[in-house]
């Protein structure tokens, strides 16, 4: 059973291929994503994030869930040498962090219910669990210059993939040290066991420009695939282990 809905300003698809699937279980996951949007969206005036930005809520008085995101954000800034920072010039926007976090929470929810074989895709960031009718999940990396073309097909199992780039949202990631948008690369995909790590490292690596692929190479447990403005691809040493032969 596969259901897709627009939540958090993006398509979210949930597909469960176990033999017995209850639609109510999938709907409960969408309800969770809606609650995340209500709490973390910087575009909703009533969200906790908006209230923080209006100084209506002090950081010392935020919810436990917000504290979790704040702690993850601080750790991510440290892990990425400051290239991933949710505090941009005094404006708090954890959107880039929340997506991977929410997917990971949703994965745990489905597994707790008892499902083993499924995927969750939120705006192109995905986690695949188990297998599809006994075979590994095939996940494609799109050509950033032609969205109808797949440049690589990966075979994944119990694994996440996240891509940062300019194809859908345009230039929205900046180099925080030079306060400029990135023009040398157009796509950075990261594969690993954690969707949170794949998501945050893909964003940070993109912000690093051409040096981003070296950063991914240095991180244990993740692999990366970068496409530059000329259409040339560079990838980490273990990336080909995921590529469909």
Provide a descriptive summary of the structure in words:
The protein contains 6 helices and 14 strands. Strand 13 and strand 14 (233-235) form a beta hairpin. The two termini are 28 Å apart. The chain has a single domain (2-241), classed as ApbE-like domains (T-fold, Roll), CATH 3.10.520. Strands 1-2-5-6-9-12-13-14 form an 8-stranded antiparallel beta sheet. Strands 3-4 form a two-stranded antiparallel ribbon. A two-stranded antiparallel sheet has the order 7-8. It has helices at residues 23-40, 48-53, 64-79, 95-113, 195-207, 212-218; strands at 2-7, 10-16, 87-88, 91-92, 118-122, 125-129, 137-143, 146-156, 159-165, 174-175, 180-181, 185-192, 223-228, 233-235. It is of the alpha+beta class and 245 residues long. Helices cover 32% and strands 30% of the residues. The model is unreliable at 168-172 (pLDDT under 50).
Provide a concise account of the structure shown:
By secondary structure, the protein is α+β, with helices and mostly antiparallel strands. It contains six helices and 14 strands.
Layout of helices and strands:
Elements: E1 2-7, E2 10-16, H1 23-40, H2 48-53, H3 64-79, E3 87-88, E4 91-92, H4 95-113, E5 118-122, E6 125-129, E7 137-143, E8 146-156, E9 159-165, E10 174-175, E11 180-181, E12 185-192, H5 195-207, H6 212-218, E13 223-228, E14 233-235
Helix pairs in contact: 1-4, 4-5, 5-6
């Amino acid at each position: 059973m596969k259901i897709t809905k627009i939540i958090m300003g993006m398509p979210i698809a949930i597909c469960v291929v176990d033999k017995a699937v209850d639609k109510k279980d999938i709907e409960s996951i969408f309800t969770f994503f809606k609650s995340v949007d209500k709490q973390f969206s910087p575009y909703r005036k009533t969200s906790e994030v908006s209230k923080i930005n209006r100084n209506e809520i002090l950081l010392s008085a935020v919810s436990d869930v917000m504290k979790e995101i704040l702690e993850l954000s601080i750790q991510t800034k440290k892990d990425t040498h400051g290239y991933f920072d949710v505090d941009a010039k005094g404006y708090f926007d954890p959107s880039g962090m929340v997506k991977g976090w929410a997917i990971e929470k949703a994965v745990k929810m489905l597994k707790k219910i008892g499902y083993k074989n499924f995927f969750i895709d939120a705006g192109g960031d995905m986690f695949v669990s188990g297998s599809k009718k006994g075979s590994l999940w095939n996940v494609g990396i799109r050509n950033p210059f032609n969205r109808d073309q797949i440049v690589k097909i990966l075979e994944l199992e119990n694994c996440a993939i996240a891509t940062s780039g300019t194809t859908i949202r345009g230039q929205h990631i900046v180099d925080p040290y030079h306060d400029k948008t990135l023009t040398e690369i157009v796509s950075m995909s990261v594969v690993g066991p954690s969707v949170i790590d794949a998501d945050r490292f893909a964003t940070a690596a993109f912000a690093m420009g051409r040096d981003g692929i070296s950063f991914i190479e240095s991180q244990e447990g993740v692999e990366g695939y970068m496409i530059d403005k000329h259409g040339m691809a560079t990838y980490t040493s273990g990336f080909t282990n995921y590529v469909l032969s």
